[in-house]
Amino acid sequence: MTGWFLAFLRPLGGPPKAGNGYRLDLMIRRQLTLTGVVQGVGFRPNVVRLAAQFPITGFCGNDDNSVFIEAQGDPESVAAFFTAVRTDLPPLATILIWRESDLAVVPNEPAFTIVASRRAVGAITLLPPDAAICPDCQADMNDPANRRYHYPFTTCTNCGPRLSIIKDVPYDRPLTTMADFPMCDACRAEYEDAHDRRFHAQPISCYDCGPNLWLEPSGAEAPPQHDDDRRTGFAQAIAGAVQMLRDGKILAVKGIGGFTLMCDARNADAVATLRARKRRPGKPLAVMAGSLAAASRIADLGDLPRQLLSGREAPIVLAPMSDGYDLAPQVAPGLDDIGIMLPYTPLHRLLLGRDDVLVATSANSSSRPLTFTNEDARRDLSHIVDAFLMHDRGIHVPVEDSVVMAFGGGAEPIRRSRGYAPLPVFLGGDDRCVLAVGAELKNTFALTRDGMAFMSAHIGDMGSLETQAAFERSVDQMLTAHRRTPRLIVVDKHPGYATHNWGLRQGERLDVPVLEVQHHHAHALSLLAENLTQPLGWFLVLDGTGFGDDGTIWGGELLHLDADNPLSFERAWHLPGFGLPGGDSAIRHPWKSAAGLAFEYGLDIADRVAPRPAAAGVDEWALVQSQLRSGFGVVRTTSTGRLFDAVAAWLGVCQTVTYEAQAAMELEAVARRCPHDHDVDCADVAGLVELLDDGLNRATPTPCLARMFHRALTHLLARAVNSAVVEPSAVGLTGGVFANRLLSSYLARDLEQLGHKVVRHQIVPSNDGGLALGQALAGVVFGEVGQ
Predict the structure, then answer these.
(1) Among positive and negative, which fits the CA dihedral 325, 331, 337, 341?
(2) Which of the 8 DSSP states describes residue 365?
(3) Could you say which DSSP state residue 159 is in?
């Protein structure tokens, strides 16, 4: 260390000194205020830890929505300290905004300390998401000498339930479902120790003071009673559950945000029984692997998917099945992807061995929302499961598992829920409260305040009264937590959507305006909301269904948004339309879409389609032919999703579906079986239809035809974009069709070769689960432009 620096550190005579002996005339004092998820995440102890690494004094504290820091020292040390505070964050912290300002130097300040919390008038605490168990808590559970050895509710400041247990703000234990469990002395000491990992960890508990756990046979009149030794009782419940799973039984396991149905994923009989009882014949089932090594044996996982699986969000990751895939065929029939996650709660960790793989699917009956209360589980799931592994820690906000798709070297959101909700998206602008009610399928909603959009957890499909009630309850919970009443409600334009009509009723009840936003426009706006700092005006929106401004069903759209007013858009191009006989019925029966496509291009539908729809009776087939010839009962569509359905049915891949996008997903899986690239091109959709028809006549293998369709369609789409955009530009890709990895990779490559920059979703899904964010942005812009 140089002599001048040592002289600087020594107390000197002459110029005034701070209390630590540093010269005041060589020092500065600055304030840093950080807004975001900074409450209940160990932020202040982390700041003190970082401050000890620098020659500074000062303090840190918090109020309802921010952490405030004052730091004093030489300019370089203060700057480096502030940089460390912003970058070396506690695991659950998220910073949205930070502000710095100069202050007067304070003489005689001895150290850096934590000061008492302040109340901020009108400020609302940002709620943290639920988080997967951290490595430190796993170590506690695995240590026989630790008092939380094998404790199924182990948590700390860095992990565990958050959103799901919060009843109201501020985020303090009395306002969570943990209020039912007073802390023992040992837990209280940890909770109050600023140097402890469990400092102010609201869900803290142990065997002596925490929730109860039991294994309850289906149909039991009362939960079994443990003896006084809870360790033994918990161990017996978990051991009993493990044995039942090994015996091929089906369990409902209560997790962080709701119940999960679980069985041995390698036991074909158990999986078939689960499907039969749940009445879920074909939709793929997610699985939970006991370790990352076990997950890697059944799925091809890149570096980022591995990080996501092991991270605090711990989502389900959709990834290609590996050569070592050995699960029951019924787990994901007809597909070559598997949705996989790792144990994200202490209870899951105790249920699975390192090599185990269990089916882990949401516990709900068809079309109903997630089951999350013990009473509802007994009522609704007893006919599905053989037993419940249940506890009495309440769930206030039900939260589904999140889903991401492994794509190239990265990942994209498919369902944004546990681990991500309710983290906000920063939109900027004034404090304008907009309630965006979202879509009909994969529903989420959004609330804006203070320039931020807060996305709800996944609600589901709004086709049942139960889901609509869950939606309304969740809206009420969010409005209560944020202390807001909406001044504008935004809905999808589709007049038949339950969310549309709910929004109209709410607008009338609250006497606030209701803004209708076209479906694909909202998709484009959702991607724009993720990319407000870069120029982005062109959007290719591909999905299954959206009510168009002309009264037809859109879904293959190239939109251009006005840079000065994104509420205005131009439909610059779209796929050519064709007829759907029976309208929505064609969604459930892709062979009807095939008939419509064939008829549109002058092909004999009887020769090409009639032999295939085995599920169609003579009368139904005659009705479809009559509808197409007369035009009565036929809905026009430009939907890419329906085009995929038609081709899947035409090629004999899928005639009737039991879940959304089944035909398209199976067609993609079939296409990947083709070993050839088949870089074919067609001038238009008519040429693409002719290509497929010729291939069928030549008996070209179905996988090759499926691959040709993907390749030719992406060339067609890229050429349409390039013709409209003219100069190289950023082009956003949004809509549910972009969950197709094969199409997405081909199209991105084509557009980039043409000089365009491809922009894709990173925060919310491209499907309808992200629609509310676009609606929210529309509402904010609507207020700003004064329309």
Answers:
(1) negative
(2) -
(3) B
Distance of CA 154 to the CA centre of its chain: 25
- DSSP E strands in 220-334: the ranges are 251-254, 259-264, 287-289, 316-320
Measure the CA–CA gap between 638 and 559, rounded to whole angstroms: 14
The separation between CA 484 and the C-alpha centre of its own chain, rounded to angstroms, equals 24
Task: Give the whole-angstrom CA distance, residue 701 versus residue 682.
Answer: 19
**Euclidean distance between CA atoms 726 and 411, whole angstroms:** 30
Q: Which two tokens stand for residue 282?
A: 């074909």
Structure pTM?
Answer: 0.92
d(CA 358, CA 361): 9
Pull the structure tokens for residue 531.
Answer: 């990319």
Q: Roughly what angle, to the nearest 10 degrees, separates helices 685-697 and 640-650?
A: 10
CA atoms of 249 and 740, how far apart (whole Å): 34
The greatest distance separating any two alpha carbons of the chain, rounded to the nearest whole angstrom, comes to 104
Q: Decide: 742 and 405 in contact? Cβ < 8 Å.
A: no
pLDDT at 293 over 70: yes
Helix, coil or strand: residue 617: coil
| CB-based contact 293:356 (threshold 8 Å) | no
**H-only helix segments in 386-518:** 465-482, 498-510
For residue 611, what pLDDT is reported? 53
Please check the confidence at residue 526 and state whether its pLDDT lies above 70.
Answer: yes
> Hey, what amino acid is at 650?
W
Distance CA 684, CA 209 (A): 68
Q: What is the pLDDT of residue 11?
A: 33
- With vertex at residue 702, the alpha carbon angle to CA 700 and CA 703, rounded to the nearest 5 degrees, is 110
Residue 543, H or E segment: strand 538-547
Question: Are the C-beta atoms of 432 and 484 separated by less than 8 Å?
Answer: no
**The residue type at 563:** A
Closest CA to 453 of 480, 478, 418: 478
What does the DSSP assignment read for 270-295? HHHHHHHHHT-SSS---EEESSHHHH
CA 513 to chain centroid, in Å, comes to 29
Distance CA 306, CA 685 (A): 39
Element at 620 (helix H, strand E): helix 618-630
Q: Is the CA virtual torsion 763, 769, 771, 775 positive or negative?
A: negative
Alpha carbon of 614 to those of 9, 403, 595, 603, 611: distances in Å? 87, 34, 14, 20, 7
Q: How do beta strands 553-561 and 488-492 pair?
A: unpaired
In the numeric block, the tokens 């609704």 are attached to 380
> Which of 556-570 are b and which e, b meaning 16 or more Cβ less than 10 Å from the residue's Cβ?
bbbbbbeeeebbebe
Mean pLDDT of 432-460: 95
